[in-house]
Amino acid sequence: MAMKRFAVESHRTIEGSALIVWRCVTRVSSECDAPAILKTDVEAVVVKAIHLVLGDHDRMVQVLQENIETVLQFKHKIKLFFVCRFFREE
Fold first, then answer.
1. pLDDT band at 1 (very low <50, low <70, confident <90, very high)
2. I want to staple 32 with a disulfide (CB 3.0 to 4.6 A). Which of 9, 24, 65, 86 is the partner?
3. For residue 87, what pLDDT band results from cuts at 50, 70 and 90?
4. Between these two residues, 2 and 88, which has the higher pLDDT value?
């Protein structure tokens, strides 16, 4: 299945309020028959997906903290390596 590209558009309802939808970018040229999707529906699905991924909040926080500590330690070691190398070359 080909990946569809979407664009955000704003439309006015009969009552005059703004309605924001996601629409396939090729819809105007009649190449795509995909319906417009309400922005609120897209937001709801994204939030649901995030909740599914982060369902085990405590474990996710622990892994995130460990990853941050690892990166910071690695950055520190790299800086220390270059500082030591600089002074050896002097």
1. very low
2. 24
3. low
4. 88
The whole-angstrom separation of Cα 50 and Cα 88 is 49
Residues 46, 53: contact at Cβ < 8 Å?
no
- For residues 26 and 3, give the distance between their C-alpha atoms in angstroms, rounded to a whole number: 12
**Radius of gyration over every alpha carbon of the chain, rounded to an integer in angstroms:** 24
Beta strand 18-24 with 6-12 is antiparallel
CA dihedral 29, 32, 35, 38 (to 10 degrees): -70
Instruction: Give whole-number Cα distances, 63 to 17, 56, 58, 71, in Å.
Output: 44, 11, 9, 12
> How many residues comprise the chain?
90
